Amino acid sequence: MKKLLVLALASLVCLSAAAQNVPQKCGYVNTETILSAIPEYKVAADKLEALGKQYQEAVKKDFSEIETLYNNYQKQKASMSAAQRQAKEEQIISKEKAAKQKQQQYFGQDGLMQKKSQELLDPIKEKVQKAIDKVAEDGGYMLIIDIATNEGVVYAASAADLSSKVISVYPTIK
After folding, report:
1. Which distant-in-sequence residues (6+ apart) come within 8 Å of 108 by Cβ?
2. Which residue of 25, 105, 130, 151 has the smallest Cβ count within 10 Å?
3. What is the CATH number of the domain that holds 125?
């Protein structure tokens, strides 16, 4: 739905400009291409990947310990009293809740990975946006579409690709 809205808006802008006999200049960028050409983005992405692996290993270790506790409980269950079984079950449930909380703390919507991603990548993305804005203004473009995020684009002439211009402008943006 969102993609259709973007395409409809783009069409409306172009048609409006055509009706007013205003020259239309449209182009597209591929932010994946742009970001992959920026060394500081690669460094930030590598840091995030390493941190994600570290957090994933910690969570995996917790769940592995829970599985071991559960398997041992299953083996010893028959020889335990009702009170011992209940205590062991509560211990397992408590550890499982703690592991799920840790997983949420690391990977949840407002988790540490999300915050670190914003901290490392947002400044780079803002700078890329400023570079795109500069290319648009300098080139007199009325519309620039990012084909990396909008799968609604069914055709894009390579002559309209502004990614290389944005990459060349990026280092000059502060």
Report:
1. 114
2. 151
3. 3.30.910
**71: its two tokens:** 């398997």
For the record, the structure tokens of 17 come out as 């400009």
Q: How far does Cα 28 stand from its chain's mean position?
A: 21
Whether the predicted pLDDT of 72 surpasses 80: yes
What sign does the CA torsion over 111, 52, 166, 38 have? Answer: positive
* pTM strictly above 0.85: no
Structurally, how many domains does the chain consist of? Answer: 2
Are 87 and 141 part of one and the same domain? no
In which residue are the tokens 């894009």 written? Answer: 156
Angle subtended by helix axes 39-76 and 82-107, to nearest 10: 170
Please state the separation of Cα 124 from the chain's center in Å.
13
Q: What does the pLDDT read at residue 16? A: 53
Pair (94, 136) in one structural domain: no
Give me the residue label for tokens 């597209």: 28
Tens digits of residue pLDDT in 18-70: 555 556 788 899 999 999 999 999 999 999 999 999 999 999 999 999 999 99
Contact in structure between 111 and 105 (CB atoms under 8 Å): yes
Burial of 161 (C-beta count, 10 Å sphere; 0-12/13-18/19+): middle
Q: Does residue 174 have a pLDDT over 90?
A: no
